[in-house]
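look at this fold:
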Amino acid sequence: MLAVEDLAVSYGDAQALDAVSLEVEEGAIVAIVGANGAGKTSLIRAVAGQHRPARGRVIFRGSDIAGWPSHRVCNLGIGQVAEGRQVFPTLTVAENLEMGAMLPRARARRTENRARVFAMFPILEERLAQPAGTLSGGEQQMLAIGRCLMGAPDLVMFDEPSLGLAPAVAHAVLAAVRDLNREGLTCMLVEQNVAVSLKLASRAYVLENGRITLSGTGEALLADDRVRQAYLGM
């Protein structure tokens, strides 16, 4: 579904990504593992059209979309759940969800997608009239995921979905990612809980200092001594 080829991203003189190549097969969960500052968010933002690559290609279903504006990327079917949730705090839950349904590809399926969101996160239906900024952190993360789903994506990139959440809430959010994948949604997962993300992933890549240094199945990387020492403290 998605192939990143020889991707380079720079911020002025600072290079965030260099010669990054990876593949995301349709129906898979692909985990991107790395320390803070490794370039994980830069990778997601480059795919999403929020950063123009200095070099390389981003192939989505056969088309090179590198450098496309983000609204065109979204309308192709690539969704993003950004780090820090980034809901619209003064808008209600209902209004936040409607923002996600504004893409042309999603308008005809608005009612269906809304029902899907409420089936996954019933608390959002109870909070429809509540300003998003007054929700708990976990509820805001559910809203961020729900807003993304309202755009009818085929591929969703999750950037640290459990960050800052209590363990039980983090578990529920990551379970939602697993359940969405079982329903057929393709996922790219950047997650601070490396052990959980590798258990969920069919394939994973280790990103260090802007470069891919390891790749393999999630199971294989979970058993790799270098990964265990660097990210699991074992």
In short: The chain has a mean pLDDT of 94. The two ends are 34 Å apart (CA to CA). The longest helix spans residues 167-182. Strands lie at 2-11, 14-24, 29-33, 55-60, 63-64, 78-81, 155-159, 186-190, 203-208, 211-216.
